[in-house]
Amino acid sequence: MRNAILLTDRMWSFDFSTVLQVFDGDISPIQKTDNTLDIIAATPRVRLDHRIIVGASPLPAPNGYDLVVVPGIAYPNPLLDETSDSYRNLWDGQTSCEMARTWLRRAHACGAEIASLGTGSFFLGWCGLLDDTRVTTHWMFGDALQHRFPKALIETDVLFSHDETKRIWTCGGGSSSLDLCLTLMRRQYGQAVNAAASRTLLVSSARGESSPQYIPEKSKASEHRGADLSAITIPVLSHPEFPWSVESMAQLGNMSTRTMQRRFKQEYGKSAIQWLLEERLTLACELLETTTLTTGIIAKRVGMSSSDLLRKNFQSHLGTSPAEYRKAHIARS
């Protein structure tokens, strides 16, 4: 895979380091021999926040990239001023930024997927890539993004968004940048590599696209102190083969089924049973990639009663069969 981070001045070092750690760091024991991550910009040095200066390679030919990531903007509060075009001062009239915009458009036209982190979505909008595109950003900047780019289809109630037709990924920034990067890693290298990287980073698993960005303080305060979902998720993930029900999961957390469902909806954007099914499918993907076990054995190990049920869930949620998934992973490896 050939990936790139596209930089301009005044981008957020947190996002930059997140991409580096996931795609270019030594965080997985599984070798990614075909991985290339280019740090590119129109200038040889780029100034990020906190006086961090990064050396970058010149903008290369735009063809041949699988993924280009655009970090968020450091100190983005001027973006909130809808009465002025001060946000344009970040890029308009600056030769290096104009060159970066032209390059990103061409890379996208050549087939690259584009991912922006947090307020990097404004740069995508400035590049003309958000028209009729599903997109999210940090919840504080959703209205401003809609005001600047009225043709964009804003979704500020999700952690990250993928417009498959437009090949555009966006996220809310902050910790969701890690969720998105791990999701992109899983798509490129499979669940086994992703799981190894997640364990190294002490992340149980990347939160899904539908997970909510923001829980109002009032809602948080109304929950009792014992409503920690780790008391449920850790035992369940340790024994996925157990026939878990809503009732048995709620008992683990010492809470009512209603409270548990509300907590899962707040934390993961889905019901407890939906969460459980997705985790079982994730584990099944890892076993298909790393073992030669039959689908019947894998089905039992992940808590599904038969290989037929495993195939049915694969088809409805992943759009493929276990056999085709395994074959595709072998071809990719």
TrEMBL record:
GO terms for molecular function: DNA-binding transcription factor activity; sequence-specific DNA binding. Residues 230-328 form the HTH araC/xylS-type domain. Keywords: Transcription, Transcription regulation. Pfam families: HTH_18 (PF12833). Gene3D superfamilies: 3.40.50.880, Homeodomain-like (1.10.10.60). This is Helix-turn-helix domain-containing protein. It comes from Bifidobacterium callitrichos.
